[in-house]
Write a structure and sequence with these properties.
globular, 305 residues, mainly alpha, two-stranded antiparallel sheet, Rhomboid-like fold, 14 helices
């Protein structure tokens, strides 16, 4: 058990490991809720567990949401069903690896959060606007990372539409067709028993597409998320103790200066020689042979008009 805890600590200490951190947080929340459910069910206090879930899931009712606005974030870190979290985290991991390799870890976080928030807002909007759903507003709630995962998946498919995944029984399939299949499936189920969740999927998918298209044109929608991430990291970063040295009645204080470039991989605009070298490597060995830095340089070059 101690080895597992140590492994998790090491993963959280890595600066460019956002993909795994998000999966670990979702898994930890799921396991804690599962343990809490078992304990309170056996002690015949299941109403306490229901109250905890109520504090984490997103309500469709605006009046309920005003009482607990944090649920716009907590809902996409909360799962009750093991197959629900398994599918969402696998989906998120497969496509998130591509975003991580080509655009960096911080954009995985931005797509996840913006997709989850947009999915939640669209879910509440549609339930309060469309007559078909209005009768269900007071009793409808949503939880799960599906909208956030869809945002990452569609973002990856927009960035690299012809990238292929080798699926069991089906062989190599371009990821744009995988994303399109799940979008159509969600659209077909918007009047089914899980209508709210499928509406959120579509909201997340829309954000993923817009995020990448704007990024390719030089506009990064993730900047507010990065600012929050940097502020959050700064709260827990250890500051070095101040050293005071006396020499000839003068005081010298040494401190460390933290810059945003120390925590994120800043890729400079490559010159034409670098671009040609990367393109030659692609023609000989394919996209998969590129290093993470080469992929990010290639994307940076594609933004230059």
């Amino acid at each position: 058990m101690s080895n597992i805890v140590d492994d998790i600590k090491r993963e959280f200490e890595k600066s460019e490991n956002s993909l795994v951190k998000i999966i670990l947080i979702n898994t930890a929340v799921f396991l804690v809720l599962l343990l809490v459910k078992i304990i309170f069910t056996l002690s015949q206090s299941s109403n306490i567990y229901s109250w905890i879930i109520d504090m984490l899931e997103l309500p469709a009712s605006p009046q309920e949401f005003i009482r607990k606005p944090w649920t716009l974030i907590t809902y996409f870190f909360t799962h009750e069903d093991i197959f629900h979290i398994l599918f969402n985290m696998l989906f998120f991991y497969w496509f998130g690896k591509l975003i991580d390799e080509y655009l960096g870890a911080k954009r995985v976080v931005a797509l996840y959060f913006l997709g989850g928030i947009a999915g939640g807002l669209i879910y509440m909007l549609i339930y309060n606007v469309l007559p078909f759903f209005q009768t269900q507003v007071e009793s409808s709630t949503m939880l799960g990372a599906s909208a956030a995962a869809f945002s990452v998946a569609v973002g990856a498919s927009t960035l690299l539409p012809n990238y292929t995944f080798n699926l069991i029984f089906l062989g190599p399939i371009r990821i744009k067709f995988i994303a399109l299949f799940y979008i159509i499936l969600s659209l077909a189920q918007t009047v089914g028993p899980n209508a709210g969740g499928n509406l959120a999927h579509l909201g997340g998918a829309l954000v993923g597409y817009i995020f990448i298209k704007l990024l390719q044109n030089g506009t990064d929608l993730g900047k507010p998320v990065y600012a929050i991430m940097n502020g959050w990291t700064g709260l827990f970063r250890r500051r070095p103790s101040m050293q005071v040295t006396y020499r000839e009645k003068q005081v010298y204080r040494s401190t460390s200066v933290y810059s945003s470039s120390s925590t994120s991989s800043t890729i400079e605009m490559p010159d034409q020689h670098e671009i040609d070298t990367i393109l030659d490597k692609i023609s000989k060995s394919g996209y998969e042979s590129l290093t993470k830095e080469e992929k990010q340089k290639l994307f940076k070059a594609s933004q230059q008009k």
